[in-house]
Amino acid sequence: MQYWVKTSLACGVLLTLSGCSIFTNDAHHPRNYRANAPVKVPSTLKAPEIDPDFKMDIAQYESQEEPKGFRPPQQVLTVAQGTWIEEGDKVSRVYFDKNDGIKDLADSIWMATQGALTSNNVTAERSDKATGTIESGWFTLIKPKDGWFWEDTKSPSQQRFKFRIEQQEHKRTASLVVELIDYRSDDIPLTDLLKQQLEVRALNEVVTEYDYQYRRLLAEIRQSEGQLAIEIGSDEEGNSALVLSTAFEHVFDKVSGLLEGLSFTVDKVNVDESTIAVTYEKPEDSIWNSIWGDSIPSLPLENGKYTIKISSNKEGGSVLTWQNGNDQVLDAQAVQALQQGLLNAVRQKDVRL
């Protein structure tokens, strides 16, 4: 009997100790150590003596901790081709590499910065292209919230920035640094985190504009390169002909597809004689084709069969001599009209070899 009593007591003590261990011990938190204010002794009585070794300072602790900001910093958007950043950079900066088609990298960044100001209805108060610096007017990067139509909308804050372009000696890489130089707001105080966010927002505005301008440049380059340059000349026999700057081997391989896109039907290709037999039929005008942009331009040729003889010239280009269905070479007047018609057609259809 005594054995079971001892065992029960031991188990009870162990359970009690283990149960206490699951509770968090918060008894020694600093806010729990509070010294009460000393008793105020009436002036007619003598104050009690207090040993200075045991005197405690009166400390007050708030029951709620100080709020902390956990919002991450603003991120530089390297959306434009050739843009990149350095990890751990302490300033708001983005780097640009010189892409194909760009002649002057610093000038391209300058134009993008000016475009970003214009798109935000902001003017440059100071600009010095020699040093690559621009000081902007007042931005409104943080837009006011939408309210009722009778309420006046007020911008929460306005900012001014300094943009600085720095180009490396080899001129293949340049950087853009943005610095907040002025800030005004009635409600939102400027903090280090807000300053960084505003600078990066302004930087992203320029990167986005640079990307837009470079895409337009690429489209213009693609439109200009490879486009047919058709001139009037003559072949070795002195007949009026169309002259292309493109080499013979490139023209002969691709001219059939070019003609098929301009209402020609390719009947026969004779590689040995370097001739292409075609049939031309003027396209029918359709209001639906004009609406949808599928209309095919008409050429100043009569419907019928034609033979095109392709040869190379001394300049490395190609010569196209046209004959009608009666094997008669087209005269100079007909070739000139055909040249203008082909130029208009290839520009309208964006045809390239």
TrEMBL record:
PROSITE patterns found in the cross-reference section: PROKAR_LIPOPROTEIN (PS51257)
Superkingdom field: Bacteria
Pfam families the UniProt entry points to: Lipoprotein_18
TM region(s), chain numbering: none
Protein name as annotated: Outer membrane protein assembly factor BamC
